[in-house]
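FW: tagging you since you asked about this chain on Friday. Here's the raw sequence from the shared folder, copied in full. Didn't touch anything.
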Amino acid sequence: MIAGTVIPFVCISVYLIFSLRNYSHAYDEIVSNMTIANSYNLNFKEEMDESLYKLVVGAVTFENINEDKQLVSPYAVIGELREDFGVLMRITTDKESKSWLQRLLRNIDTLEDRVDDIKINLQKGGHYDENIEMLDNNIYILTELIQDDIQHYIYYQTQSIENLKMQLNNQVEKFIVLLTVLLVCLIVFVLIFSSVTSNSITKPVRELCGVTRRISEGDFSVRAQVKTRDEVSQLADSVNEMSEHLEVMVSQIKEDERKMRYAELRLLQEQINPHFLYNTLDTIIWLIEGNLTGQAVDMVVSLSDFFRLVLSHGREFISIREEEQHIRSYLEIQQVRYHDILDYEIKIAPELYPYRILKLTLQPLVENALYHGIKYKRAMGKITISGFLRQDGDGSRICLSVEDNGVGMEAEELERLRREIVRPCKETESGFGLANVNERIRMNFGMEYGLTITSGKGEGCAVQVVIPAQPMEETSEEER
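HL: got it, structure written out here
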């Protein structure tokens, strides 16, 4: 930027110096010429006329004229005049001045011839009248012509000075215009160059700031695209390496947390309520003591089916047919204990049987409906389990529903339960079983799936489960 700013000014300054030098030289030359011409213009005619008159009247001779300090030798004056104006003839350039110098030199030659004639007559003697007539008709006229020539020469030299002045003024005006244009161009250049330079420095820094901000917000996949070859580029590479390491570490931490959370959920899922087992065994003993061995056998079979499906060879996913058998076994066991208040109906479409579901998805919902809905009603209640396949723009979905006609919930209680089930189940204060089911569904299928609860005081409660329709063949690597 400095070079682009200084170099034009240096060039203009050099050009200006040379131009001024040329104009100064031309001006000095013209002034010098005018000084020489003026030195003759002031006293040439008087000196020449007086000297020649004294020579004609015999006051002095050509031999002793130099002894008179008030007179000059005509030949000396003519010689000096010819020499000085001959020099001016060689150095003068303008046409008009040169023309008048040519006339002046011719008149000088003629004057010298007339002086020669007078000198010859004086040497012969007796030609006084002729010499006087020659003075009047030739010498005085020639000196006047020579003086006119000198004046014309001075006039045209003055015109040359005026022309030189006009040229200089034009040159100065052009220089001012050129300088103004150059200044404008330089200002534009400096602004553009400064903007480009500043942008080339600040843009990578701004981009780096944006990258670091996104990293601080948790986006570790972002990378700084800095192509410069400076310290900012090195810093960007370091930030990219840091972001890459953080991304790997965070991914590893998330994966470890996911696996740990998955293990915790499975552990919580597979914990059997000891009260359910104790109560069931007590019921079996009560049936045997009451000689109701057939019902006792049926209850033992249902309990066996219940535990077989709970264990299910360690599988996480089972078919919807197996999940239906599991809740049927659970309800058969509970109906023996609560035969006076519990009725149930299972209406799952057979077309859903081949699809997979997380083990123990519906049993906690049925248990919640029994203990928090039907039991508090203290009258005959009914639990209905239904399911159907729904087609929408995102693909096929399975909708399962557990409904009861129990006591239901107030609006505030329902809203609180809805908030609880979307929290991690270990942080919930109520609805632990529902939160466990909802979290397992979202962890395995995605955040768009899970539970939806509707209820009203005295109107019962309905819990809907939405999962993707995935056949049992589509097992994950973890299940394998």
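FW: DSSP finds eleven helices and seven strands in the chain.
HL: agreed, and The longest helix spans residues 128-216.
FW: great, closing this out.
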